[in-house]
Amino acid sequence: MAGSGPFFCSDAARVRGDPIAGTAPYGDVWVLVEHRGGWPSNGFDGLDLDPAVKARVYRAAQAVRARVLLVRRHGRRAPSGPAPRWAVLRYDGSGVHRQHWGTWNADTDLVGIVDALDAPGDAGLPPVVLVCAHGQHDPCCAMRGRPVARALSERWPDLVWECAHVGGDRFAANVVVAPDGVYYGGLDARSSVAAIDAHLAGRIRAEHLRGYTDLFPPQQAAVAAVLGRAGPAGRHDYAVTGTTRDGDRWRIRVAGRPPRDASFDVEVRAYRTPATRLTCRGAARSSAVVYEVTSVRPG
């Protein structure tokens, strides 16, 4: 591809056929800060905010390993109108996910995030659909993310937000459903609507699934393989009940929960790819770890 025009990491990943399963970053808490203007390349850290407020929010977020993301509605609505919002979204393995929402006009209003990180939050709210469209971080995020944000916003205007960098630029368009903790990648306008429609109906598909963020990469790959074999299922229809490792190989037990009583033993092998260019803005070549499922056996 050298010399054939601008380099786009998502195009290169598709040409290489980069595996997508097992690539979701680990985490179960998200902090969202609505910012309707342009986003700095480093997101929240680059905003011109009171340094003391920014430090307090970051310390509180780091204490619980929360990810801080800038968000905005698709189309960059004018600064006038309702006050910008912030949110703390928390995944709960029981399925009782929690959300806490607030608004901010002054920098000091963001201190409410610190208190929310220590509070349980409200249950029963619909999930948030985050579409990475952070072009200042990586061109592919904007080029592929914005059409997806438009398509999803037209269908679910109250659920969908554009967001800053979520990881895995080469898998753009990336979509995160939170606080469910589910990453999707390699999406376009049509496939994103199909994926989110199925997700909201409790039928998560293996196609385009990067992983569940409460699981580690080989476990994510194992669950995706089970969904690919047994068919779509709800977020909590399967649980990882056992993981053993021998060098670069894992044996992972994925057990169904009622009404899915089937269980599977999944074998996963890890290996590194040859060094290549993985992002648009980073010219350095590096390798990635792939988690290849070698067998799926009903147990």
SSE run: HEHEEEHEHEEEHEHEEEEEE
- CATH architectural designation of the domain at 9-214: 3-Layer(aba) Sandwich
Helix content: 10-25%
CATH topology of the domain at 9-214: Glutaredoxin
Largest sheet: 9 strands, mixed
CATH superfamily label of the domain at 9-214:
Glutaredoxin
State the CATH class of the domain at 9-214.
Alpha Beta
Describe this structure in words.
Helix 4 (139-155) crosses helix 5 (189-200). The longest helix is centred in the middle third of the chain and has 17 residues, at 139-155. The protein is 23% helix and 28% strand. The strands form three sheets. It has a nine-stranded mixed beta sheet. A four-stranded antiparallel beta sheet has the order 10-11-12-15, covered by helices on one side. It has a two-stranded antiparallel sheet with strand order 13-14. It has a domain at 9-214: 3-Layer(aba) Sandwich (Glutaredoxin), CATH 3.40.30. With 299 residues, the chain is of the alpha+beta class.
